[in-house]
Design a protein that fits this description.
The protein has a single domain, classed as Ribonuclease H-like superfamily/Ribonuclease H (Nucleotidyltransferase, domain 5, 2-Layer Sandwich), CATH 3.30.420. The protein starts with a strand and ends in a 37-residue tail after the last strand. Helix 3 runs antiparallel to helix 4 and helix 5 packs across helix 6. It is an alpha/beta fold and about 300 residues long. It is built from 8 helices and 8 strands.
Length: about 300
Amino acid sequence: MHLCYIDEAGNGQTLDPARPDAPPVLVVGGFTVPRSQLKDLTWDFLEVKKHYRPQLRKAEQLSEVIQHEIKGSDVRKNLRAGNHQWRRAAMELLASLLDMLERHDAKLLARVWVKEEGLAFDESGVYPASVGSLTETFQAQLAHEHSRGMMVLDSRTKVKNAPNVHCVTTRKYRTGGDSLRGVIESPVFGHSDTHTLLQVADLVVSSLLFPIACHTYMSDVTWNVHCDDAYQPLREQFGVRLKKLQFRYQDVGRKWRGGIVVSDRRTQQSSSLMFGPNKAAALPLIPGQAGTAGDGVPLLP
């Protein structure tokens, strides 16, 4: 059995110079993991949290460690506005994140939507379409692995949640057969302070895929706070690893699908740009467990 955890970064706000903080892209994505790796992945992530938030080492209750979140938006802020030590700490955290996903046979999947300036963006249609597409990719992986699986989506509001799974429910129970047989139930919703691995999905989507997409496809939009050159090292340092972590498959027409898919409405550029050329990184790639609080390096706030 496999589990799939999905989160989002960005929203449907129109991209406009009058709103310099409007997200230039919307990313819906996350990762899959075999059930056999679920517990070890969770414990590894709790250790990563304690490593980068040393105060958690003194926590008396496990629930304190579980509920304390390192948000992707905070990691981005440290990359954009932090000093050298804060940026270094952020890059170390992301290296640790990818180390952990690689070690536990996780696979990445995502839909990235690049906005056009001044044009309305229909989040109510794009988000369900993304969930439907990701479910197809998950089903393809389950068929490949001869497995069954279930999806857990980060909960938003009931009004927003319900439409996002109807497309899956109707495909499973419509007349003519279930085209998503490996997915044992329609996606369910969880809260990140109770479903620990949704926090991992947030970091993947919000601190890696979102800023990489902003810099890759929107670097000329200098008036937007999210289109920052500080994100360039993310693609240079982690792009190849992200590419290898994808699950991709060929459909009946032999067309490659799945993985991290970009819909660039603005300049129609390729999804492969997310992974970038294999250049020397601007910052050194530091093993996930390098550096401790005792080193005198300020860790993520």
